[in-house]
Specification:
17 helices, 16 strands, alpha+beta, 421 residues, binds adenosine-5'-triphosphate, 40% helix, elongated, 2 domains, BirA Bifunctional Protein, domain 2, 21% strand, binds magnesium ion
Length: 421
């Protein structure tokens, strides 16, 4: 019996991977426009890093992490998100000393033990951004504008929902009001009943429709913001207005991680069923300090690449594999040798070239050239070779013309490269 991949773990095969490359390239180009630097961080971290940052009573930590004891008896976790790892790296590598405002991005797989469905996997991929060292509301607006630009460049759109979760000064009064409301609410699910005592804000993120119906009447955090948070939120909105980025305030959006303060946001679509969030993020001003670093404010967001790829495919905007420049059709032993050398010489001119080594029939090799979507074919036969001649075929127009074989391979490859370019 053949071994299959794990449930919720998916291969991204040729035919699909081109769309992924397009997403990644588009995002990298835009990250570059915003002067972001890439950082690569490990997939495996000490479990404590995530429990301390994401929060003990979040869905991710309570139910979704891939945690195991390694051979040394340490508890390790496959990262469920990128922020904690990037902040750990920021602190550990002293990046604060190198630049007061660090703008970082990372792209890679994340792991959450969730129920797999369309747009929801156990290994999924995020492109995520962290800006550390500024609490200016323009930074928040700029980050949302960046996410919005990525979608635009991909030919996609989504609605931007924003909220403010306040700060340690104003959150307690809201928590008290929310707790009061939750004690009066009826028939809450088990999770919500338990969490209202430990982490009342968390219940607003519950996926149960019965709970959500009741939470429509919950107090709004925006009514409890302190003057500092109120003006910060106004300036974030002003920033978005200045950039003409449309948004909607959703005061019930709390996000599933405990570390958020002030601005939070989500990019949502109606085109992916229940998996409506294609990107999300928020400010986390106390987190660097909480992880043992300096008191540095920060904000970040992550976009889910599976969901972006699904949207592109769904809308017929998926990217097809590009064909090759040239297929060398070689008939006979001498032609095979010459053709083999030609592929190598042409690849050094930056062209995509291939050939068949089995010396199959002309018909078969031409079929392969067609399948490879080659723009041109060079047909080389032993007889023609001895006369110093080959045939160049334009695969699209089917036009064929004689092609002189220069005595020197590099010269010949140079002449052919000029035709291909
Ligand atoms: P959801 O509400 O869909 O569970 P989330 O709030 O848990 O999303 P975040 O932790 O904010 O998601 O991650 C940011 C983005 O990563 C999401 O907007 C989504 O596009 C993507 N994402 C999160 N979990 C998954 C998953 N299991 N499979 C695929 N993509 C995911
Ligand atoms: Mg989730």
């Amino acid at each position: 019996m053949s071994i299959k991949a794990l449930k919720g773990f998916k291969d991204i095969v040729p035919g699909e991977v081109e769309t992924w490359q397009f997403i990644e390239k588009t995002a990298r180009d835009i990250f570059h426009c915003f002067d972001l630097a890439e950082i690569k961080v490990p997939i495996l971290e000490k479990t404590e890093l995530f429990t301390r940052s994401i929060g003990e009573t979040t869905d991710i930590v309570e139910k979704e992490m891939y945690t195991f004891i390694d051979r040394n008896g340490s508890s390790l976790t496959m990262r469920p998100e990128g922020t904690a790892s990037v902040l750990r790296a920021y602190i550990e590598n002293g990046l604060l000393a190198k630049k007061t405002v660090q703008k970082l991005y990372t792209i890679g797989p994340m792991f959450r033990h969730e129920r797999p469905q369309k747009g929801r996997l156990r290994q999924f991929h995020q492109m995520s951004v962290e800006v550390l060292g500024s609490d200016h509301p323009r930074v928040d607006a700029e980050l949302m504008a960046m996410a919005w630009l990525i979608l635009k460049a991909l030919g996609l759109s989504a609605s931007l929902e924003i909220n403010s979760l306040g700060c340690p000064q104003c959150r307690p009064a809201f928590n008290a009001a929310l707790l009061d409301f939750l004690h009066k609410a009826e028939n809450l699910c088990d999770d919500c009943r338990r969490r209202r005592e430990t982490n009342p804000l968390r219940v607003l993120d519950c996926k149960s429709s019965h709970c959500q119906e009741q939470y429509q009447h919950a107090p709004s955090i925006l009514d409890f913001l302190c003057p500092g948070c109120t003006s910060h939120f106004s300036e974030v909105k002003e920033g978005l207005d200045l950039l003409a980025i449309p948004y909607r305030v959703n005061s019930f959006m709390v996000r599933g991680l405990d570390y958020y303060t002030r601005t939070t946001f989500e990019l949502v679509t109606n085109d992916l069923g229940a998996q409506s969030a294609i990107g999300a993020g928020g400010r986390y001003d106390g987190l660097v300090k909480q992880l043992g670093g300096a008191d540095v404010p920060g904000i970040g967001f992550a976009m889910g690449m599976e969901r972006l790829a699904l949207l592109l495919e769904q809308q017929g905007k998926g990217v097809a594999a590009t064909g090759m420049d040239l297929f060398v059709v070689a008939l006979g032993a001498a032609a095979q040798k010459k053709g083999f050398a030609l592929t190598h010489a042409l690849r050094q001119t930056g062209h995509t070239v291939s050939m068949d080594y089995q010396d199959r029939s002309l018909k078969n090799q031409m079929k392969q050239a067609g399948k490879a979507a080659a723009r041109f074919a060079v047909i080389l036969g032993d007889d023609e070779l001895s006369r110093g001649e080959a045939v160049l075929r334009n695969m699209e127009s089917s036009e064929q013309s004689p092609l002189a074989i220069a005595a020197d391979m590099d010269t010949w490859a140079g002449e052919l490269a000029a035709i291909l370019s």
